[in-house]
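DATA SHEET
Item: assembly model
Revision: 1
Owner: S.N.
Input lines:
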Amino acid sequence: MALKLNSFISQSHQLPSLAFPPIASLRSPKFYTASTLKSGSKEVQNLKKPFMPRREVHVQVTHSMPAHKIEIFKSLEDWVGQNILVHLNPVEKCWQPQDFLPDPASDGFEEQVKELRERAKEIPDDCLVVLVGDMITEEAVPTYQTMLNTMDGVRDETGASLTPWAIWTREWTAEENRHGDLLNKYLYLSGRVDMRQIEKTIQYLIGSGMDPQMENSPYHGFIYTSFQERATFISHGNTARLAKEHGDIKLAQICGTIASDEKRHETAYTKTVEKLFEIDPDETVMAFADMMRKKISMPAHLMYDGHDDNLFDHFSAVAQRLGVYTAKDYADILEFLVGRWKVDKLTGLSAEGQKAQDYVCRLPPRIRRLEERAQVRAKEAATIPFSWIFDRKVKL
Ligand SMILES: [Fe+2]
Ligand SMILES: [Fe+2]
């Protein structure tokens, strides 16, 4: 099947690359939507339209998976029904945000809110920034459901399709939806953050979408989701640790509970890719290498609050400094996945498959070396205001 290039968004303007280490420096070329251009430029007047996403997106390769590969995913439906759907929890057994929040229907509501606010007073601003960034990332769940439904062979064709792939996508989304909901309500009640700015950021982010370059291929897509679920498991786990250190045990419990959902989702997605390695190792290893060459972009990389053109970079820098999600984590996740899927032990690959295998297996130490060099070069960190916390300044 021929590749289609959607180049309608191409611009020659390059903004400084994203700073999320070490991925940014390795990313493939990016292209910018009109609204990323500085106002006042002539091009802006020609191109600017309301509601266009503000951030850069790549030229997209679409529908790269040939028809006979789509059949593989159709043939896996029963397997998904038996092996993947079991990783979803029944609604009646799921935790709900209300389990962790003051009950507005109870007499003790005001007292519980007071206690929550007392505990939240001790959380430093840099932790708040990371929590808000995590919450905003979770709140963009409509985008992630959309992404899953861009994939050929597994998409929910009707919105209520009964194929196991479609059931997974909807129920996974429904589980994820609780994450943003809980963090949002908690941060609202804490009184520590500027909710209007946060709400604007969520609206901008959902309006902008995301750009993980999955080519409508579930080979690419499930490698991406495997990586991302593990990344969120790590980052929510680290935020739980920070909350505990600052004495907010309830918040630690909230972040830990969300982390355990992410872990369960990671298990399902890595199991799916393990199956793909079993039945189609060549295509799967090539997709793995392709995603790593493009770098795994974070789900909220297009975030914007109406003020800070580099908001995601700044949020990421704070997360890196606090050890919530770091360049080392990126290399560790990759190394974990290589081991999980036994990529180094694959045999009978084509020449191209062997090249991909070699690339992926050698990448984690390469990323670590690049990161070490970047740290040596790192300058004194700047301190910048975050609108999410009433423009209080935080060190990057
Ligand atoms: Fe989540
Ligand atoms: Fe997740």
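QC remark: The domain at 73-395 is CATH 1.10.620.20 (Ribonucleotide Reductase, subunit A).
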